[in-house]
Amino acid sequence: MKLAFPGRRSLVGLFSFVGLGALLVACTVDAKKLEDSIRTEMKSKGVEMKSISCPTGQKSFGTNKFDCTGETNDGEKVVFNANTQGGGAVAWELKGKIIPGTELEDMIKEKADHPIKVKCRMKVMIFNEGDVFFCDETVEGKKFALQVKAKNDSGLFEWKAATNDDGEKMKKADGDDDDDKAKSKDDDDDKKKKKSKDDDDDKKKKKSKDDD
After folding, report:
1. CB under 8 Å to 206, separation ≥6 — which residues?
2. Domain identity same for 79 and 148
3. 128-132 long-range CB contacts below 8 Å, 24 or more apart?
4. Residue 143: inside a domain, yes or no?
5. 12 and 78: one domain?
6. Which of 27, 137, 154, 206 sits a CA distance of 20 to 30 A from 6?
7. DSSP codes of every residue in 22-49
């Protein structure tokens, strides 16, 4: 099923290198300040950035277009289209749409043909064409994985049940394997403790028999 987020605008920013009462003497964009501007604006939208990199040596006057790149704390690779506006100002725009996980969950639940609980694995996603994200649906106590695919950069997406190589619905969500590993480790620890206790009991019995 295909859906779109109505009325959701792109994240844009305008940053000027001319401070109040300051004289602009640099002829190139201050990449560090631009990165800080992007980081601050992204954080205000709920997206924490792990890294941002803007190219150095970009002309600050006239018409000049360039891209900054970054990575969110969730590991998403993102691109920011930047261009100088004249007078020392630089405008930038995030490529793609910021989609909060709660909004995506609500839309899927609203359009589903049966009552479900939905939990997306990321709090905030940035939709670019072809990007794939995962949510988990719970139906009658059973958990299945949902695959959400961005159809364009403007918020259009579709979702379907995630399947394995055999075409079967994936029942396990991210973290289930970790739970299984933890359970397996606990079982191993219990076995070791039991074996150690049995060994101690055998030693005590043997010592008691030797004493007799």
Report:
1. none
2. no
3. 128/95, 128/96, 128/153, 129/153, 131/76, 131/96
4. yes
5. yes
6. 137
7. PPP--SB--HHHHHHHHHHHHHHTT--E
pLDDT tens for the chain, residues 1 to 212: 555 544 444 566 655 443 322 333 458 888 999 999 999 999 999 999 999 999 999 988 778 899 999 999 999 999 999 998 877 788 899 999 999 999 999 988 888 888 889 999 999 999 999 999 999 998 888 888 999 999 988 888 898 888 664 445 555 444 444 444 444 555 566 666 666 666 666 666 665 555 55
Give the number of domains in the chain.
Answer: 2
Q: Do 76 and 142 fall into the same domain?
A: no
User: Is residue 182 in some structural domain?
Assistant: no
212 assigned to some structural domain:
no
CB 91 within 8 A of CB 13: yes
- CA-based end-to-end distance of the chain: 79
Distances (CA, A) of 61 to 58, 89, 115, 147: 9, 8, 56, 45
Cα separation of 97 and 9, whole Å? 7
Position 201 in a domain: no
Cα 23 to the center of its chain, rounded Å = 41
Domain of residue 155: give its range. 99-176
How far from chain centre, in Å, is Cα 158? 18
Residue 85 sits in the same domain as residue 147: no
